[in-house]
Design goal:
This protein is an alpha/beta fold and about 325 residues long. It has eight helices and twelve strands. Strand 9, helix 8 and strand 10 form a beta-alpha-beta unit. Helix 2 packs antiparallel against helix 3 and helix 7 runs parallel beside helix 8. The radius of gyration is 23 Å and the shape is elongated.
Length: about 325
């Protein structure tokens, strides 16, 4: 079970302050003693995520508001399924409704897209990782949603893993020098390096980072890199993963290095769904057009084989690029005396 982010209350408080400002002037039209009951249902299939944010929203507004859940985070939900019921004084319920649904829609959309990619590579020795390209202020929330969708988190921020790119290499004077400097700075943290050519890849192998990311590689060069990594790495040393064909949670399967491919085979996935997310597979480099998430669906068409020779591969997807699933939820409220 994923751990809830420690900054969840602050995320909710910030969202409420943004929406309410100096006060909900419309809610004041409702008598202060008016009570309300309501329920939220789905309109489309999805992976539910965001329960704690909804509950916290109403708790901060009025602890006496009662929220009764009928599904858990990570559950597959179907059209017209009741997700939760809410009851209490009308003013706090009406004030918190939009903020609560915004969290639930955004995080359910993120979890649903993550699950779609996880399902697409089911049966392969691959995994889906996320990126740092999240909505400002909501990184931990979207990272949580990724886990609820069955995918895995890469680094959370700039503090928990070293990722060496071309600018760092240029500043250090060489790729090997950058990796050595990264090792000295990393302590116990992993050191990743992004390479753009097979020559850089072979230099990186000799320098010994934990993870190698293949940036802008052709399919043929990706296969070659995987073969080189498989054949040349010493026993127990790092292994390769990829950002194109997904990979491991950063190498927990006996080796340490991963080869991250940065391309997704869009030729095999041309279907589009009603929710347009053309950049959902944007990697750490350039944007890659990818199939739109169709809630509860799957990748249309056939999948091409994953490049051979790699024990694990990795596909990165970008939580920020997933639109809030605005059709996901409907709230029906009934006023009572």
């Amino acid at each position: 079970m994923p751990t809830l982010p420690s900054d969840l209350p602050q995320q909710v408080a910030t969202a409420l302050a943004e929406d309410i400002g100096s006060g909900d002037v419309t809610a004041e039209l409702v008598p202060a003693t008016q009570h309300v009951t309501g329920k939220v249902i789905t309109r489309e299939q999805a992976i539910l995520c965001g329960r704690p944010w909804v509950t916290e929203t109403f708790r901060q507004l009025d602890p006496t508001v009662r929220v009764t859940w009928h599904a858990n985070d990570g559950d597959r939900v179907t059209p017209n399924q009741t997700l939760f019921e809410v009851s209490g004084l009308a003013r706090p319920v009406l004030t918190g409704e939009r903020t609560a649904l915004n969290f639930l829609q955004l995080l359910s959309a993120t979890a649903t897209a993550a699950r779609r990619y996880v399902d697409a590579i089911a049966g392969t020795d691959c995994a889906i990782l996320d990126t740092r390209k999240t909505l400002p202020g909501l990184r931990t929330a979207q990272k949580y949603a990724v886990l609820q969708g069955g995918a895995q988190n890469h680094r959370i921020g700039l503090f928990d893993q070293v990722l060496i790119k071309e600018n760092h290499i240029a500043a250090a004077g060489s790729l090997s020098a950058a990796i050595a400097a990264g090792r000295r700075a990393a302590g116990t943290r992993k050191v990743d390096v992004e390479v753009e050519t097979l020559a850089e890849f072979e230099e990186a192998l000799r320098a010994g980072p934990d993870i190698i990311l293949l940036d802008e590689f052709s399919l043929a060069d990706m296969k070659t890199a995987v073969q080189i990594n498989t054949l040349e790495r010493p026993p127990g040393q790092a292994r390769s993963l990829g950002k194109r064909d997904p990979g491991d949670r950063t190498l927990s399967c006996g080796n340490r290095r991963g080869l991250y491919f940065d391309r997704w085979d869009n030729e095999a996935h041309q279907g589009r769904g009603p929710v347009d997310a053309p950049r959902v597979c944007q990697t750490l480099g350039r944007p890659i057009r990818a199939p739109a998430p169709r809630l509860g669906g799957h990748f249309p068409g056939r999948r091409k084989p994953i490049p051979g020779g790699c024990e694990k591969n990795i596909l990165f997807f970008t939580p920020r690029e997933i639109p809030s699933q605005s059709r996901l939820l409907v709230i029906a409220l009934v006023l009572h005396e």
